Amino acid sequence: MSQQSLIDAIPEEAKRLHPDSVKASRISHSIASLVLLIAGTVVSFFISSWLVCSIVVGAVLLIFVLGFIWAKKSYRYTCYWLTDEGLYIQSGVFWRRKTLVPRNRIQHTDVAQGPLQRKFSLAKLVVYTAGTRDASVPLDGLSFDVANELREQLRQDGDDDAV
Amino acid sequence: MATTMQSKDERTLHKTSPIFILLDNIKKILFPVLIALIGPGGSYWEYIALAVALIVSLGAIVQYRFYRYWLEPNQIRVKEGIIFRNERQVPYNRIQNINLSQNPLHRILGVVTVQLESASGGKPEAVINVVDMQAVKELKELIHGKEENQGSEPSDEASSTENDKAKATTKPAILTLPFAEIVRYGVITNKGLVILAVAFGFLSQLTDGVIKNFIEDKLVLIANWISTSFDSVVGDLGALSIVVYTLVLCIFGILGLWILSITFALFKLHDFELVKNRGKLQATMGLMTRMQATIPMSRIQTLTVRNSLFHRWFKRLTMSVETAGGVNHEQQGLTIKEIAPLFKADQRADILYQIQPDVAWQDIKWQPIESAAVKRITKKSVLASVIVSIPLFWLHWAWVPLAAVVLSILGYWYAKVYVKNTAYCLNHDVIGFKSGVIFKKETFARIGKIQTVQVKESPFDRRYSMAKLEVDTAGATVGAHHVEIPYIMLKDALAIQSKLVERVSHKQFVW
């Protein structure tokens, strides 16, 4: 059992994000590219150069296509699982990371929803710790119900932040 | 009943407080106002600045009248503000550090500025500016429990030295810094550079005007004086004189820098003393402004031992700690990180034990990182060398391969030394990481203080089945040396992660 990559070390109980999160992130990418396209067109209109215009259109198209592929890739490489000790989140397409947030280090949790996420009934779970670099660990693209369920599961019994 | 309780708990600032609030405010606005006055100007902006300054200062005095705090059984309640009222409550057991500061004026009036830090990060939880020693004692008793108070307060006026000595006999200090050590500290840290940078920054603001001309004239005068007196002593050396001048200038520059640094160190560390008292570390220091930090040992999150090239020359080390109290910059408030600014390298084990007695320091075994890292770092530095060398093509093509080869060899040497110096350790209490070629640093994070554990894998790591392990703690300074172990095998990283998980989840986090 030689582990070549973090991907090979994912346990069986690991869960994926909601498949609709791909759609949601593609839509938000599209909106971003559209805004870029409009801004670029306006600029090239003022410069009135076809060369600039075509470069802008090409670049935006490239960004759009990459974003489209990236959404799927990112979904494929993101997973999370809950153990007795805490929450594991693994993500990243090229630069991968596996973050562990121990249960007894969680300060509080947030479930957040944007307008687009509401449309697909998705949500973002944010786990807060007392840390510095990882003061907040986000898990974006869960279904709203799963996010709430996870939040309940992470909730500790009683107030044991004893000092 | 409630009202009588309130009046019993209520405290106000010391009568002399407005002076200190005013001085503080003046200090805050002094620099911008100065620049506005001497900088490029002539407009009426400077008058507006002055008017604003005046209003701010007067406001500060009023501020004093509205500052109240209550020492309730379990918490301190602080109320401040005139228009925007602010009231906060901090439970005593959530207070991380108590820092005191006393400048000469404080000492004359027998008062002190108190800064309370909780783990909220950023700004201090409360700054009490100023109260008398009795109030400080009362506060300390409430926060740390009744029994203490053999600890030395920052010098109660003139009798301080005798007092300190008397206390030192009852409670031997872990560390004191005699003058020679402070001189070494000054040379090692070279803070003079910072002062120079500030001075240059200030000078660059003087675009024109009388003061700038004055300074320039004086500089030219000094240079002339040096060159004429030099010529009269040694005689004219012709072309060689430029070399000699540069050399002399360098020597004087370095000497000047050292003197500046040592002066700076002396102001900061004069009469430094670190004592341990009922599980708390108490550091007292300062020439003009005396400062005192009290840190409960159990609140130390990470511990860093620094060992730079200069440290090695003098066979000394510097130790600093991080607490969850998030005041990391001097602008945010009083901060004392260097709990042991300088000590002999062979005292290392003892100091470590004194500062964290419940850690098994003796069974620390350093594990090297993978030796394959030499190859990887060399590859990186060769690539970087080639890229850096390419612009030399415009000079002459032959420079490109020459520079690239020389830099690559240096890169290979660096990689070897880097890998040799990088290691990690893990025992039951701490995880440690050391790295650095010129500035060597070791950082230990207590396992009970670990917040999250990350295993990271870059595309390059993947080709070698390697990974990086990173540990996060509360109150860490962003960008500072922390436990981040690169170039270890992925399976080792995962094994450490699961080991840490097991231990962390059995240790309740206590700030």
From TrEMBL, chain A:
Record bears the keyword Transmembrane helix: yes
YdbS-like PH domain sequence ranges: 75-154
Keywords, ordered alphabetically: Membrane, Transmembrane, Transmembrane helix
Pfam families according to UniProt: bPH_2 (PF03703)
Sequence intervals crossing the membrane: 24-43, 49-71
Descriptive protein name: YdbS-like PH domain-containing protein
